[in-house]
Amino acid sequence: MEDRLREAFEQEAEQLHAPHGSPETAIRRGRRRRASNLIGGAALVLTLVGGTAAGVQLLGNTDDPEEGNLASAIESDQAVDETISTDRTPTVGVVEFAWEKVTLPKPTSPTDVWNIQVAATDDGFVAVGTGYDPTAPGPGESLLVWQSSDGTDWTPEGVTSPFDGQLDALFTTDDGFVAVVRSYDETTPVASTSIYRSTDGINWTGGTVDLSIGVNQYMWFTGAASGNGATVIAGSLQTEPDQPPIVFEEEGILLEEGYEGFTVTDIATGDTITVVGTEEVYGAGPTIRGPDGGFVLSLSEEVIEAALQDNFEGAVSIEQDGIGVEIDYNDGSYVATDIATGAVITEGPIDELYGIPQIVIVDPETGETILDIDADTFYRAQDDAWKDYSDDYRPETELVVLVTTGGSVWNRVELATAVAEEAGIGGIGFGQNGFLLSVFSYGPDGAGQDFWRSVDGQDWELFSSTDEPGGSPIVSADGAYYRLSYGGRAGIARSADGVTWAPVHESASGGTYYNTLSTGELGLVAVGQEQDEVYGPPVIIAKDGRTLVLDGETGRITVTEDATGEILTTIELDVYSVEAPAQIIEDEENGTIAITDVDGNIVMEFTEEEANAASEESDREYEYSEPEAAIVFSYDGEEWFTATTVGVEFAWVQSVAVGSDSIVIIGQPSYGQPDSIDRPIESGSDGTTEATLVYPTEPYGEGPETYVWVGRPR
Questions:
Q1: pLDDT tier at 35 (50, 70, 90 boundaries)?
Q2: For 301-433, where are the E strands, in sequence order?
Q3: In whole angstroms, what is the distance from residue 259 CA to residue 18 CA?
Q4: CB 372 within 8 A of CB 388
Q5: Worst-scoring range by mean pLDDT, 18-32, 320-334, 490-504, 583-597?
Q6: Does residue 613 carry a pLDDT above 80?
Q7: What's the pTM?
Q8: Domains along the chain?
């Protein structure tokens, strides 16, 4: 279970541009949502089932894009929404597209390329992205620009990055590109923000904004739009409360984790004794220690990555200072051997390489040891602190809406909306009625969505609210606004005024998810993926003559009496609720979960281990289908067609542009995973050619090739 939480919250931290430090920290941060390891925060349940529900995961997406990386006209959103109108949309026809896949030329210097935005121009297409070169001075980032007249042949343009800082987000609007740049002062943890604009991706003009990011704050931008001489970008600023102090009563001290490390305080006097770095508590990197805990060898991450270049499959050999280290990431183990004698020095799980066995803190004034405990004791104390604090650990999110008319100065616009636990910008677009902004929020009182409208981007009016969850990218074409909808089936909704929405397309498959919506001279296009068996098999726990069934597709839990078939209780899960339903009670101290009926009578009780075993059993022999591209297209926004997708395969899409006669999709088929190709490695008895998995030729740690799919209607 901890592994699942570890993965989930490392992904969360990555999306929030948050340095998550050690995995243990990420896990402890997760306890605020861990009302139940199996069921609490129902979104986690559906993830454990292995399926995709209500936008909890992107279909087939192994490396989700950061929230701030996609443009308003080409935005990606992972939330769930329903259109106001519930009328059924007629089944769409099919339009044949001829697709061509080309590789975006990779510069020779940067080893990694990401966050590529593409836009249609009068002369074809222009793409702008970020490159990273660890050997370059400073942050090692560079600005990359490509141009193409037809979307097929791309020419890299040599551009010197004009940015004073790190490129944090990149968007396209009707007036060109917008880049958000973050700068850090080495003397303070506070980051400052500046914004640049460009009409062609090559020439950029910088602007200032009075906006800084402090300790325990994470900011990301979701979209941008231009119109009526103004440009607006919108995002969210999340502030997390301080972490709880870790109390050691016997030693008379408490530890508080902050930006600079752990502050050690005398409980009796309240005075600060010292500040110790996080590496003194969590460890400074992979370290080999002997059976007695004594230091043997320190390995750098660079050494491990270099070894992985020679063996991408995850088992590496390192020789250093007369010691050979075998690390197998597949089974999570390591062995350290004396090369001269062949004797095993130590071995164990990989987790032992990270962290330190004994935590010792010394008073710098007196030289007295004030804390000397093993790591397990420290983590137990930290867990105790979080148990008492988890109910109060709720971040607050405020909206960030910035507007400019000339580009030199950006002003923050305050929307009269309450601060929520979970809130964000669903989408922003510009149309005949001006700017349209979607704001979604989640909290103890449920989910909601507000629509704001502005003529000039300065003065905003709240003109429509619903209790529907989620948000969506918004684009404008042919005198109307369009947004994605995620009711029972993925679809597209249209509105002339931004108030009343009617469906114009609904997917025929319940396993379809659109995450990109774009418009241009040729028409409108929605891009996503579809997959059968989206939700996976139900999780079943049979115990004491009763059976619990957790159905991921319906989000329903039932407990049945085996002998009579009587349904003892039924629980409908709300995937947008932060808290677990009242009928699900977790005892964290004993590691048990109880299910009750509506009267509060316990009808089943089981342990976390039993829940994990049931989840793993349901997945063991279940084969999920591979996700496939899903693309729908319309010439006029009213009649929609399913576009053929022969030759289109992507794990996720970075951006989409619609030109005069073609659609350009920039994305990646996978990240750090083998590509499936046909190669005659061995012929069967019937003479057929078998398929094999071939790993990318790029060394471990480098980004994969970026591909361009160009589609033209036949």
A1: very low
A2: 315-320, 323-328, 333-338, 344-349, 358-362, 369-374, 396-404, 409-413, 422-431
A3: 12
A4: no
A5: 18-32
A6: yes
A7: 0.69
A8: 35-62+537-620 (no CATH), 68-233+404-527+634-713 (2.130.10), 266-375 (no CATH)
